[in-house]
Amino acid sequence: MASDGTALTETGGKLDAAIVCAAHDDCNVNANMQIANTDVATGNPVPVVFAAAGSHANCWDADTIAANDVSPSVDLQYTSAVSLFGQSLAGITLTVQVSQDNTAWYDSTNSVYAGGGTDFYAAFTTGARYARLKTSDACTITATIAGKP
Question: Would the pTM of this model clear 0.90, i.e. be above it?
C-alpha cells in the first residue's frame, strides 16, 4: 500500500514502488510483502537502488562564462561521493560551493585548477544537498558534477 493509502500498481510484471532512505546505511525495511506469490524475506530481499546524481555537462557545456560566474546547481540528495570534471580553454580555478536549501551558498575547501586546454578532475565527499561551481576567471568551459551513494 502506498503512503497515501492507495494500492500499488503493477506495470510490465514489476511492482511500482520505491523505498527512499535518508542515507545508504538507513535502509532497513520491515514489511510483510509478496511479489509474484513469493514472500519477500531475508533470503529474498527487495532490491534497493540508489540513483546517481548529475549528467554530462550539467554545469556548463562549452559555455563562455565571466569571472566569478556560478554554474547551475546539482541536487546531490542521497549521494556523498562527488566528482567534478571537464575541460577549460583558459587556466582557471573552480571552487565548489555547497548549499542545503539551494538558496544560501558557501564556498567549500574543495577546488580544482583547470589548465587551459586540458582536462580537470577532482573528487570529494559532502553531506550538502546541493553543489555548484564558481570560476575564478572568464573562460570557455565544459564541466560536470556527478555523485554516487
Answer: no
Asked whether 110 and 116 are in contact (CB, 8 A), the reply is no
107 burial via Cβ count (<10 Å: 0-12, 13-18, 19+) = exposed
Query: How far is 52 from 80, CA to CA, in rounded Å?
Result: 10
Architecture of the 60-148 domain:
Sandwich (2.60)
Instruction: Please return the burial class of 139, using the count of CB atoms within 10 Å of its CB with bins 0-12, 13-18 and 19+.
Output: buried
Cell numbers for 14: 514489476
d(C-alpha 8, C-alpha 5), whole Å: 9
- Specify burial of residue 141 (Cβ count, 10 A radius: 0-12, 13-18, 19+): buried
Question: Would you list the domain boundaries of the chain?
Answer: 1-49, 60-148
Residue with cell string 550538502: 128
8-57: pLDDT as tens digits:
666 655 555 555 555 555 555 555 566 666 666 666 666 666 667 888 99
Give tens-digit pLDDT for 109-146.
999 999 888 899 999 999 999 999 999 999 999 999 99
